[in-house]
Design a protein that fits this description.
heterodimer, A: mainly alpha, 10 helices, about 0% strand, elongated, B: mainly alpha, two-stranded antiparallel ribbon, 8 helices, 2 strands, about 60% helix
């Protein structure tokens, strides 16, 4: 998987895009669309909504490209816009009312969107992990993804959520505990065995 | 004593500091504990696995993005809950909270059951089935009065509306099934209550959809 920050920046391309050259704007989209989609899909479990937000992200990125001061930081800049859009959506009254309706009626749950008929997941392990991630509470899922995959610090994640680093740490713990349950690992139940006795 | 999950995560992320404990206590423990080193390894592998979980391939959206940049396609708006939607949701919330708060026996009122032969008297919740059925019918007429759904709509709106309609259908199935059996009218009240709540939400969603489409 290629992360946004792993993609080599091309300052000349960014400069052409900032000048409004259509071909350069299209090239920016083509270079960064895949990695952006990964971030958005991990933060927003509903696939159709994630596609909408992905498009919204790129419209904003290309409209605000002139504001980018350091072309080498374009990957991190796109990521910050994508994450911000996703978190704004998760905080919106619209989304919260939908979640509330789901809870009221015992309705939609994320794993339903990742059923066995999907052929985009090849390995069983990947599918299991994908399902488990889909079952996490959305805040915990966002935090574990931003921390463990995007490698943001707890301070950065806390700021994104309008909280402190402690908030990020507790959400990360929550996510890992739940992931462990979902992936059928519970080593806390096992006794401590010194290596000398075990081998 | 085993390091807790927070210490193991810290050790995974900052191996050079030896975890959270003083003098790298967690690191020392893990080095000598098969369980903990296995757990630390599991956390490392989990992070690598997460980095490789595939994501569905999406379609190329460049043409739509280009159209939006040129102003050929209007900027898509997330449905913003106006007073109507806010009111609808608030009313639904109030009803749900009310049901939760007044579910106790003290709030039951005696009503005459219209279905029981001989006009027997029974205990029904404060929201009688008859009034809920009436409200349900009223909301259905409100929904019928909305204009046809736009051909192009936000996925979020469509998904929410479809989800609500699905749940109403399930409730209708549940309400219809007992007609052939011995079904207490009191058992139907929660279902009718839920049906009214869902219809209220659907009205709010359709209102937001119409309002967004009108811009």
């Amino acid at each position: 998987m290629t992360r946004l920050t792993d993609i080599d920046a091309d300052p000349a391309l960014v400069a052409r895009a900032q000048a409004g050259e259509r071909q350069a704007l299209a090239e920016i989209y083509r270079r960064y669309a895949g990695a952006t989609r990964i971030v958005v899909h991990r933060l927003i479990a509903r696939r159709a909504l994630a596609e909408d937000l992905h498009q919204d992200t790129f419209v904003e990125v290309l409209q605000r490209l002139g504001e980018l001061r350091d072309p080498r930081a374009i990957g991190a800049w796109i990521r910050s816009i994508a994450v911000s859009k996703c978190l704004m959506h998760l905080r919106s009254p619209w989304h919260r009312s939908a979640v509330w309706i789901d809870q009221l009626t015992g309705g939609w749950s994320a794993p339903g969107e990742y059923d066995d008929a999907d052929d985009y997941l090849g390995a069983a392990a990947g599918r299991r992990l994908d399902r488990a991630l889909g079952r996490l509470p959305e805040t915990a899922r966002a935090v574990v993804w931003l921390h463990d995959v995007e490698e943001l610090t707890h301070e950065e994640i806390g700021r994104l959520f309008g909280h402190t680093a402690s908030f990020s740490k507790s959400q990360l713990l929550r996510a890992h505990r739940r992931l462990r349950q979902l992936l059928d690992h519970d080593p806390e139940k096992l006794p401590c065995i010194p290596i000398s006795q075990n081998f | 004593m085993h390091p807790d999950l927070a210490e193991l995560l810290s050790l995974r992320d900052h191996p050079q500091t030896g975890g959270l404990g003083p003098d790298g206590a967690a690191s020392q423990h893990v080095a000598g504990c098969a369980i903990c080193s296995a757990e630390l390894e599991r956390l490392r592998r989990l992070r690598v696995a997460m980095q490789n979980v595939p994501v569905p391939a999406g379609r190329d959206q460049w043409q739509e993005i280009a159209a939006r940049l040129d102003g050929r396609s209007p900027a898509r708006q997330w449905p913003r809950p106006g007073w109507g939607l806010a009111g609808g949701l608030a009313a639904t919330l109030a009803v749900a909270v009310g049901v939760a708060l007044f579910r106790g026996p003290a709030t039951h009122i005696a009503v005459t059951s219209a279905t029981a032969g001989g006009g027997t008297s029974g205990e029904l919740p404060a929201d009688s089935v008859a009034s809920l059925m009436e409200e349900s019918k009223r909301l259905e007429s409100v929904l019928a009065a909305f204009p046809a759904e736009p051909r192009v709509a936000r996925a979020g709106t469509v998904l929410t509306a479809a989800g609500l309609e699905d749940r109403i259908e399930w409730i209708d199935l549940a309400l219809g099934a007992p007609n052939t059996g011995n079904f207490e009218i009191t058992a139907a009240a929660p279902l009718w209550r839920q049906r009214v709540d869902l219809l209220n939400s659907l009205v709010a969603v359709r209102y937001a959809q119409v309002r967004t489409a009108s811009f």
